[in-house]
Amino acid sequence: MNPPAQAHINLAAFPHNYQVIQQLAPEQKIMPVLKANAYGHGSVQVARALPAADAFCVAFMAEALPLRDAGITQPITILLGPQNAEELALALELQLDLVIHRLDQVVLLENQVGERPVVVWLKLNTGMNRLGFPVTSFAEIYQRLKGVTCVSEIRLFSHLACADETDNDYTLEQSNLLDQSTADSTATVSLANSAGIMAWPHTHRNWVRPGIMLYGASPFSDWRERDFGLKPAMTLKTSIISLQDVKPGDRTGYGGTWVAEKTGQIAIAAIGYGDGYPRCLPSGTPVLVNGERAPMVGRVSMDMISIDVSHVPAVQIDDEVILWGEQLPVEEIAELANTIPYELFCSVNVRVHRIYSST
Ligand SMILES: Cc1ncc(COP(=O)(O)O)c(C=O)c1O
């Protein structure tokens, strides 16, 4: 008795997209980003689909636990680092690597007793101004971390703010700042996200951290010119649960915002903002009904949308509706919702069943 809305996840997309990343960054190690339940795709399933991945990263400790519980043995980096002594102790026990971006996290490490070693990624703020030490304090923090017995290796980490804007020099500035402030260091460095991997080769350094491209979507707004051969992993689907004949002047949905201009047929599909299909999507947003493009019309409700299927032949109850996926780019829907594919993926609600296959 499954709900009609389903996110079909093609597990074959992950090794495929990983290979694309390897081709773009052949000298680098790759640390796929599995935070937010692998951008809504299921972190354990994605990790299992990538047995050859060099490592993974997640935002919080709580996101690493299901991966270790599921037997994922690769290194896992906690991007926000430990928040207290308990988390640090657990991280050491589970052999998790830690981003260290605040002084109190250095103190936590200094106060840690015991023999368990930990790899730390010293995060420098090169211009994102969210997390990280000022680059001017690099030498001092590095020296302090060197004095911590449990720290087995110190690596360097920073994050790009504007790499998805290919004509924005800010990426160069961040990259140069990192070089200048760590010029004397031979430590391993990680800087590039998907946009860095795809558009800024000099940001690749030693480890790359792909997120969105692993899921088969582009970080760029002008994505159509940037076909890197990525395979979309998620197809969001539902089915038709009602058909309504309409004549000129008839309306559909809350507020009656869409008015039929001619005689036709409206199909009601079982998906809405309660599933993560954004309410802000405008009338005219494309969906695929039995593989044919048709416009969603009127307002998105919590559980339903209306689709003008007047031109689609012989539509029936239970017919398939695709909201985004391989045949309907998520980037196109994100643009209409005035957002980015990241948000659409992460918003797919828990009531939407994830169905895994490999094709
Ligand atoms: C620190 C860090 N690195 C890498 C990524 C991956 O970014 P993207 O999904 O754009 O590849 C993220 C995601 O936001 C991140 O926070």
Could you walk me through the main structural features you see in this protein, from its secondary elements to its overall organization?
- The protein is of the alpha/beta class and 359 residues long.
- It folds into two domains: 208 residues, Alanine racemase (TIM Barrel, Alpha-Beta Barrel); 124 residues, Lyase, Ornithine Decarboxylase, Chain A, domain 1 (Beta Barrel), CATH 2.40.37.10.
- It contains eleven helices and 19 strands.
- The strands form four sheets. Strands 3, 4, 5, 6, 7, 8 and 9 form a seven-stranded parallel beta sheet that branches. A six-stranded antiparallel barrel has the order 11-14-17-16-15-18. The chain has a two-stranded parallel ribbon with strand order 2-10.
- Helix 4 links the parallel strand 3 and strand 4.
- The radius of gyration is 23 Å and the shape is elongated.
- The site of pyridoxal-5'-phosphate has 11 residues, from helix 9.
Key features of this structure:
alpha/beta, Lyase, Ornithine Decarboxylase, Chain A, domain 1, 2 domains, six-stranded antiparallel barrel, elongated, binds pyridoxal-5'-phosphate
